[in-house]
Amino acid sequence: QVQLAESGGGLVQTGGSLRLSCAASGSIFSFTAMGWYRQAPGKQRELVAIITSGGHTTYPDSVKGRFTITRDNAKNTVYLQMNSLKPEDTAVYYCAARAIVDWDNWGQGTQVTVSS
Predict the structure, then answer these.
(1) CA-angle at 61, arms to 56 and 63, nearest 5°
(2) DSSP state at residue 87
(3) Which residue, 22, 97, 101, 110, shows the most beta carbons closer than 10 Å to its own?
(4) 105/15 Cα distance (integer angstroms)
(5) CA-CA distances (angstroms) from residue 40 to 49, 99, 106?
């Protein structure tokens, strides 16, 4: 099974930017989609961004226009560029991979904290 490892989290002020990386131990080319999810304390895990193997991207309204997901198949890495960060973006961010239907592969998560 391909292992996913997130990095790039940290503490940033409101309005700041961070770029998260998700490095896979193997090829991500075969996955139908790669995604980023997040989970804040006391809340359910929620979708942040998806990018399909064809490059199509999807974002919820809460991050649309601020976050950008990209993938580099040659480096087996997925990125999440986060701009104009808000305190409500504070959460643990997880990278995930979808083989066909289910999100079967998950990373350990990286903490993002946005101070007001």
Answers:
(1) 80
(2) G
(3) 22
(4) 31
(5) 16, 26, 17
Span between the terminal Cα atoms of the chain, in Å: 39
Q: For residue 69, which amino acid is it? A: I
Reference 30, options 71, 90, 63, 86; nearest CA is: 71
Give the model confidence (pLDDT) of 64-74 as tens digits.
999 999 999 99
**pLDDT tens digit string along 26-85?**
999 889 999 999 999 999 999 999 999 999 999 999 999 999 999 999 999 999 999 999
> Which tokens sit at 112?
């993002």
DSSP letter for 98, please: E
Expressed in percent and rounded to 5, the helix, strand and coil fractions of the chain are 5, 55, 45
What tokens appear for 82 in the block? 């986060």
